[in-house]
Amino acid sequence: MSFWASIRVALRALRVNALRSALTMLGIIIGVGAVITMVAVGSGAQQKVSEQIRSLGANLIIALPGNITSGGVRMGLGSRVTITDEDAAAIQREIPSVQVAAATVRGGVQIVYGNQNWATAIQGVTPEFFEAREWDVDDGRLLTGEDVQSTARVVLLGQTVVRNLFGDESPLDRTIRIRDVPFTVIGVLGYKGQNTQGQDQDDIVVAPLSTARKRVLGFSAVRARSVGTILVKVQQASQMDEAMSDLRDLLRQRHRLQPNDDDDFSLRNLAEIMATREASSRILTLLLAAVASVSLVVGGIGIMNIMLVSVTERTREIGLRMAVGARARDIMAQFLIEAVTLSIIGGTIGIVAGVASSHAIAHFAGWPTLIRVEFVLLAFLFSGAVGVFFGFYPARKAARLDPIEALRFE
Question: For residues 251 and 99, what is the distance between their CA atoms, to the nearest angstrom?
Answer without folding.
Answer: 17
